[in-house]
Specification:
The protein contains three helices and no strands. By secondary structure, it is mostly helical. α2 crosses α3.
């Protein structure tokens, strides 16, 4: 069970990173891979964006979600 959770968290982090790279290359999700990463990550990023506005024109929701997922992953790995 823990291994499955770790794999899901790592996959989500990979989706976040892929989305970040695509956002620099292609700001609107047209590519299938970009669209998939957008659909997977947006439900987590949108609420954070509503709570934390961009700072200096930079959207920090990605960073906050990435840090939160990293912390959850660290807790999961330590607890078992």
């Amino acid at each position: 069970m823990v291994v499955v959770l770790e794999v899901v968290l790592y996959a989500f982090m990979a989706c976040l990173l892929i989305r970040a790279v695509f956002s620099w290359i292609e700001p609107y999700p047209k590519n299938r891979v970009h669209r998939l990463t957008f659909d997977v990550t947006e439900p987590f990023l949108a609420p954070v964006r509503r709570l934390v506005p961009p700072i200096g024109g930079f959207d920090i929701a990605f960073l906050l979600v990435f840090i939160a997922v990293s912390m959850v992953l660290s807790l999961v790995q330590r607890s078992f």
